Amino acid sequence: MKRFLLWSFERGSKQYDVICAVILAFIFLTPPSIFNDRPDFMRGPGDPIIRTTRDDDGHTVFTVKVETTVFSTQKGTEQAAVDRLKAWLGAPVTVSHTEPVYDTTGALVAYSIWIER
Q: Is there a single domain that holds both residue 111 and residue 61?
């Protein structure tokens, strides 16, 4: 077992080939759902448009996905996200503050919205 862990086999040997086959089998046969390490903005189409979470202080945070276009402004998409949240809640709310959420490429994907209750 020590030789397997330290990888002390010569290239081209049967043991080396077995270890490589086990590693490749793990990489290609393990379903991605086991790790569940995708960021929120990359979740599939079945994911909700509005997600409810809590921040470190225990306040409710609504994360609202937005659809951005080339000609949309940040203020316009922020207002669209707030309007979508108000329609989803079905009640008039006062927004405490909002924060944009960006993906790894720097594109705007959502807004985190705190409301006063």
A: yes
Q: In which domain, by residue range, is 84 found?
A: 40-116
pTM above 0.70, yes or no: no
CA separation for the pair 114, 95 (Å, rounded): 6
Q: What would the DSSP string read from start to end of 39-62?
A: -GGG--TTS-SEEEEE-TTS-EEE
Mean pLDDT by 10 residues, the chain (117 residues): 73 88 92 71 63 82 78 73 86 85 84 83
Same domain assignment for residues 15 and 55: no
User: 58 and 108 share a domain?
Assistant: yes
Which residues neighbour 34 within 8 Å (Cβ) at sequence distance 6 or greater? none
**Measured between alpha carbons, how far is residue 74 from residues 66, 81, 84, 104 in Å?**
10, 11, 15, 18
Number of domains in the chain: 2
CA 41/CA 109 separation, integer angstroms = 7
Of 96, 98, 111, nearest in space to 64 by CA = 111
